Amino acid sequence: MSHSTTPTQLPRPISVKKIVLPDLVSHCTFKLRISRHWKQVTTETKKWLFKDNNLLGQKRNTYHGLKCGVLTSMCYPDAGYPQLRAVNDFLTYLFHIDNLSDDMDNRGTCSTADEVLNSLYHPHTWRSSARVGKMTRDYYKRVILTASPGAQQRFIETFDFFFQSVTQQALDRATGVIPDLESYIALRRDTSGCKPCWALIEYANNLDIPDEVMDHPTIRDLGEAANDLVTWSNDIFSYNVEQSKGDTHNMIPVVMNQEGVDLQTAVDFVGNMCKQSIDRFNEERSRLPSWGPEIDRDVAIYVDGLANWIVRSLHWSFESERYFGKKGRQVKATRVVDLLPKRTSS
Predict the structure, then answer these.
(1) What pLDDT was estimated at residue 106?
(2) Which residues form a coiled coil (predicted)?
(3) Distance between CA atoms of 294 and 106, rounded to whole angstroms?
(4) What angle do CA 166, 104, 338 make, to 5 degrees?
(5) Domain parsing of the chain, residue ranges
(6) How many angstroms separate the CA atoms of 151 and 307, rounded?
(7) β pairing state of 18-20 and 336-338
(8) So what CATH class is 14-327?
């Protein structure tokens, strides 16, 4: 797939001061539920993350505004406390890695990937003093206590893909490349970090689904539709912060660049793609084959876990301060986002 090389700074007409978000929340009718352990996991993960004075000042404030414990507790509402805690540690750490990778060149992402992947492949023997490696080993040693071999394999493989794709993203950022839409979608399905989270649905619910079932086209399509919704909607919600930093690894500038359309048209275009991904998920769900009562029960729990992610990510994006600061509730009601000024690099 070819990349079209274009400058990182897309021109934006000066008159454009705001965008109107698509109404994705009312297009998604899945139920919202939350684990009764949400406050406890939030407290314990915070202690884990801040240990040894890790994250100080603004980074610590950013963590508080993230509200990751709420996201985890709604995406994995039926998990037992030990599993929910390990998943919340992972998700919080994933946001932390995502923030780090935004500021890294490809060499930085490669060295982080070495630490993380060695810690996953060799949790009992790999030794490193790097903080990210220690954190990886700590949560993963808890995961492998009860995760099925298949879930472990899927978790490590997809996390490996995540690092390969963020390395490509760092290269694109450094060279000012805006990929074409097809290339971007393929890359974004891995940079999202959703795929390891899907493996954790198996772990959190104590599922042991055979590999041939997880490899079935319908199960794969359901995972892809959920990934696309979570990821593409995230591109809409995070666009304002990213455009202020000049970051073009986002579907909106990709669409503007490829289709030659204005900003609001691109937002609407991506919004329609999000709605289609929810419809796609519902269609695939209605086509699920049967593998017998026991496997069907586990598959139903897994698919419910994907649906939890779809609905929960949409609501959490307005509750978290990551995208809209303190104005999330207001933005959710009006769907109007005032664009931030571009940051000037020092």
Answers:
(1) 56
(2) none
(3) 45
(4) 85
(5) 14-327
(6) 19
(7) antiparallel
(8) mainly alpha
Q: Residues 157, 121: contact at Cβ < 8 Å? A: no
Length of the chain (residues): 346
Strands 3-5 and 18-20: unpaired
Residue 177 phi, psi dihedral angles, 5° rounding: -85, 130
Dihedral sign for Cα 209, 210, 213, 219, please.
Answer: positive
Q: For the chain, which ranges sit under pLDDT 50? A: 1-14, 346
Task: Give pLDDT, residue 53.
Answer: 65
List the beta bridge partners of residue 20: 336
Chain CA centroid to CA 329, Å: 21
Strands 3-5 and 177-179: antiparallel
Q: 318 near 311, Cβ under 8 Å?
A: no
User: pTM score, two decimals?
Assistant: 0.91
Q: How far is CA 224 from the centre of its chain?
A: 13
Report the pLDDT value the prediction gives residue 6, as an integer from 0 to 100. 46
- Between CA 255 and CA 87 the distance in angstroms is 34
What local confidence, expressed as pLDDT, does residue 172 receive?
83
* Best CA proximity match to 227, nearest among 302, 312, 310, 283: 310
